[in-house]
Amino acid sequence: MSHSPNPHAEPLPTDQELVLKVIPMPADCNANGDIFGGWVMAQVDLAGAVLPARHARGRFATIAVNEFIFKHPVKVGDILSFFSRVQRIGNTSITVQVEVFAERFSSQGEYMKVTEATLTYVAIDKDGKPRAIPKD
């Protein structure tokens, strides 16, 4: 635990599922020395796909990034935790929210929300056309 309190520290969500954990490496940096936003976006897309996979029961694709907010930079060595929850299930699409928390290398045990996003995925058939999501 850090000796100086982090003003951005917050608890991890309890109403969402932990779907991915990853540590960014130096090769993932941008010219400023922070983790490249595109790398974070790719990880969010992977994390966001976990819950739709359970519902789609077959092929699906990212159809929209409805919102993407970078709240704080991600640093090399951060332990990133990706939490997700289903916001809406339609006839062919599923919208999910993903929140990303960083546990900084220098302040283990403290978490800071660094990114949040809302993405929509659509179930597709073998030809890439939308198909109905199976009802449970």
Automatic annotation (TrEMBL):
Q: Does the keyword Nucleotide-binding apply?
A: no
List residues of the HotDog ACOT-type domain. 14-127
Q: InterPro entries annotated for this entry?
A: Cytosol_ACT (IPR040170), HOTDOG_ACOT (IPR033120), HotDog_dom_sf (IPR029069), Thioestr_dom (IPR006683)
Residue spans making up a coiled coil are none
Return one Gene Ontology term, BP aspect: fatty acid catabolic process
UniProt keyword annotation of Nucleotide-binding present:
no
An example of a Pfam family matching this protein is 4HBT
One Gene Ontology cellular component: cytosol
MF-aspect GO terms: long-chain fatty acyl-CoA hydrolase activity
**Keywords, comma-separated and alphabetical:** Hydrolase
Record-stated family: Belongs to the acyl coenzyme A hydrolase family.
What is the name of this protein? Answer: Acyl-CoA thioesterase
The record lists the organism as: Limnohabitans curvus
The opening ranks of the lineage are:
Bacteria, Pseudomonadati, Pseudomonadota, Betaproteobacteria, Burkholderiales
